[in-house]
Design a protein that fits this description.
The structure is a single chain. The chain is built from 4 helices and 9 strands; from the N terminus they run H-H-H-E-E-E-E-H-E-E-E-E-E. The radius of gyration is 22 Å and the shape is globular. It has a 6-stranded mixed beta sheet with strand order 8-7-6-2-1-9, with no helix packed on it. It has a 3-stranded mixed beta sheet with strand order 3-4-5. The protein is of the alpha+beta class and 171 residues long.
């Protein structure tokens, strides 16, 4: 029995050692994106330049796409992050994808951390992380949804989202 106890302690030490080695190896740089090595997070910008048709490839199946939900009751626009559903939604200054990017909702850390897209009102994983701010539906403008960005219940700006990234829901 003492021998079994001794073997068990040896096994536990070996398991810990293997775990530490594997964990250390996982921290060593690799060819993927790494934010730890960079002072300025340019991953999102570089990724977008390298993947000009990103919408075609990322958002292929509707059941895996997260959309901003507009409440029919109070017009509040909500997006809840989900690692099972992809999301990269920009809000623009005008109803035009080439206009200034005002806000970004994304599940990707390289999009959110440090606001690399330089959105005036920031980059967020979901609407619940927008401190003291909320989005309210105002109306439609061609292929865009018009929203009011509210801060402490005061309208700060008008932001436009593409129709394809929003859906109305019944509360």
């Amino acid at each position: 029995m003492a021998e079994d106890l001794q073997n068990n302690k040896h096994y536990t030490k070996m398991t810990r050692l293997i775990f530490v080695i594997l964990y250390s190896l996982s921290l060593i740089g690799h060819n993927g994106y790494s934010q730890a090595k960079k002072k300025v997070n340019r991953d999102s910008i570089n990724w977008e330049k390298e993947n000009t048709n990103w919408e075609k490839y990322i958002f292929t199946q509707k059941e895996f796409v997260n959309k901003i939900q507009i409440s029919k009751k109070d017009s509040v626009m909500s997006l809840y992050s989900s690692m099972q559903k992809e999301c990269r939604i920009f809000g623009y200054n005008k109803p035009n994808k080439n206009s200034k990017k005002m806000i970004l909702l994304s599940i990707w850390t390289f999009d959110v951390k440090g606001n690399p897209s330089n959105c005036k009102y920031g980059s967020y994983y979901d609407t619940s992380s927008m401190d003291d701010m909320e989005l309210k539906y105002i109306g439609k403008d061609n292929s865009f949804i018009k929203a009011a960005l509210m801060k402490n219940a005061i309208k700060v700006s008008t932001i436009y989202f593409e129709n394809k990234w929003v859906e109305f829901v019944i509360d």
